[in-house]
Amino acid sequence: MITGATSGIGSRTAELFIAEGARVVIAGRREAAGQALAAKLGVRCIFRRTDVTIESQVQALIGLAVEHFGRIDCLFNNAGSPAQPGGIEGIEIERFDLAIATLLRGALLGMKHAAPHMKRQRSGSIISNASIAGRLAGFSSSLLYSTSKAALIHLSKCVAMELGESGIRVNSISPGMIATGIFGKAAGLSAEAAEKTPALLLETYKNLQPIPRVGQPDDVAQAALFLASDESSFINGHDLVVDGALSGGRNWSQVQQSLAGMRSLFDPNS
Hints:
Largest sheet: 4 strands, parallel
Helix content: 40-55%
Shape: globular
Number of helices: 10
């Protein structure tokens, strides 16, 4: 089951899972986009419109997956949205509550309602899409986004310690700069307009990290596929960073430029 599946990382993950032979339930708030993707992916995929901030809808979504396919082997908590930008003094509590509800509570609800079914199976993989902004400050223009993702990473580790005893693995993925529409949405564009923006990011931000390209939804989808599979059967309570080493430190070329500048400062004739 994949939430936030109507675009970007979620839709690419659904495509990849279907290609690998999975049966997939996809969820999102945009009915038309979800139905179109389900039709494209075929009979092994069904869509249900879901707002992950509403517990009854999350519970119904997981119930649908179990009813339709008989079990739930993987839950990918991928639903997300931008959060209010700016510093601490300008925070609107209503927007804080919305960020927590979407980015943290939605994943918690998925875990809560998937756990009983996975416990009966004595197996399962729960994956939550976090962010390097949840690991280090300064990687998001929104402290609410960063805080919510930090909490999501820790929630995943806490639940991993509990559910691991029942054969259920719980991990998170922390992407870096991935070319999706979320940046357009953060800039105030409509969902439709934002989906046209990823190509604009490719050249401008390709040198942010040592690997000289912007990340793609497929990079995160492949990580989710690995964590869903038996190949990762001994990985639990882990946050998998997928960022081309963006959060690793300063790029080598930047260090060399700084060194050259320092030499010039100390010896203007060098």
